[in-house]
Description:
The protein is mainly beta and 288 residues long.
Amino acid sequence: MTPEPTQIRVPGPAVHPSRREVARGAAWAAPAVVLSTAAPAAQASLPPVTARHGVFVQVVDADPGNEFETAIGVASYLGAVSDSSGSVSGPPGALAVGSGSFTPGGSLGSQDGLYGGSGLWISAPVGPDGEFVAGTSTLKAGAQIRQSYTATFPEGWDAYEPINWAPGVRETRSRAGAATGLRESLNGAAYTVSYSQGEVQGNVWTGSITITLLEPLVVSGPDTPYGQVLTSQSPVFYDAHVLASFASTVTVASGVIEVQPADPGVARSTVVIADESAQAELTAPQFP
Length: 288
């Protein structure tokens, strides 16, 4: 007899960071997920495999000691730091504020242990005991991630858009980067990025991008158990110390992860993710 699919709702903690917690890059939210399973009758009472996931964002000032030139904003090549929070106090070196859950083992660079940028990660299948199992986790094509930006200039200044902002433009970002010990690649799935027009109100500029996956993000475990979509492959930054602060929020608008264990006797699952977000804000150094 063919078993009926079951729905299991697994509650997870929902944390709403204060402005102070966001600035430290220490808070992240993981709302409830829904697991949809279809298993043989003998397995129907057993927990299905699932997949972990997280959202992260880092805002960087690449040269906080330079009164004039810098790069301040969000980009994959700006803030690779060794702290898994994505934060570093600087100077000397970069000043960075990270928030959310960064890809375990590292989100940037060609080796493990470097954190930064912004995006979404998923894991290989995870069994009821919390250990990785053989199989695949697939974030389906069509998943959408939105990222917003707020640049606040000093009082009395007229705001303007970042140097590389492309109002109304739609571009494509391809898969990139070789695998590391824990991560499948730097950016594991091609996507389109659409830029909003942006808006200026006095000394504040705001804008947003929408990321849509063109292909699935596939992670095979347990040897290389993590994969990510790196939204910071679409960099947004200013090239001078003209800001009072810069903030960015990454939100998963919609996404479905299909988890398929290699063992046909183990229940598969579907993890639905939406409205999960991470926000970071950096206060820029001020010069006389």
